[in-house]
């Protein structure tokens, strides 16, 4: 990327009779790079669990949850930050499809060879599990106050069988792809406007210093979010505050639902996970896509988006943020089944759309 502004092709595109759109990252997908620190990257709320039997004095280091395996990048990091440590009477996870419902996984509808869930069921009634497999909020003990800076927990365990769950935030492992070696790095946090500001300054900002502000109708015209191929996230450092502001209640009593355990009831936990997904969508629309649009407009750029396939939002809501929503189709036998995007996203009343034809 450093040499690109000095090339003849770039100068022609930026200053002559050509219009150029630059993607939001150094690959064909995503927004990240080697400048993104692990604490600024896409994040998951992860958990580890141990079983103990009381009464006893527990004194040991709790295991740090491992990063969630993802096919969208393998950038493992040492960074983690504790969010909560809970103890509760032993029970088993009962929430089905938890990796999708808690936004650990999102797979592409057009190309993934495994079974991709087209939607998540939202029934009006739920078959509640046995009461022994539902955690009563009154039985959850916040033992995080007994955790020291090295992760050692010292706790007087009451009588009975208990599960201790340590919950931390960690980077999702998602990286820029496919990108040249100098551009490989972590994907920036899609929930955090400050993370996008940092990425914008280190990516677009360096190009702007070379070519200056946009002038006239020619040259660098737009910024672009291409096909969403960096998987999902479900957490950010300010998630609890953002959740309460948007949903009107405290998420902390229900965080164990991220691990597939029912809190209060299966219905309450499923509804909580719905609210998690809605909050995640809000944050992406406002702090990533919407904020990139604002930053682009300040420099005279439009925003185009390919808003479909595996992003953790509703496609049409993400597409509505764009100045130019885009879609994609492939010739028969040459690629992926993405023609649905031309129907669902391109047909926007009063809007403009662009279709990309590949491998004719």
- Given as residue ranges, the uncertain stretches (5+ residues, pLDDT < 50) are 1-5, 346-360
Alpha plus pi helix count: 8
> What number of domains?
1
Q: Tell me the distance between the termini.
A: 29 Å
Q: How do the strands line up in the largest sheet?
A: 1-9-11-12-13
Question: What's the mean pLDDT score?
Answer: 89
Give a structural overview:
This protein has a 5-stranded parallel β-sheet with strand order 1-9-11-12-13. Strands 3-7-4-6 form a 4-stranded antiparallel β-sheet, with no helix packed on it. The protein has a two-stranded antiparallel ribbon with strand order 2-8. The N terminus and C terminus are likely disordered. The longest helix has 33 residues. The protein is an alpha/beta fold. Strand 11, helix 7 and strand 12 form a beta-alpha-beta unit. The chain contains 8 helices and 13 strands. It is globular, with a radius of gyration of 23 Å. Helix 3 runs parallel beside helix 6 and helix 5 packs across helix 6. The two termini are 29 Å apart. The chain has one domain.
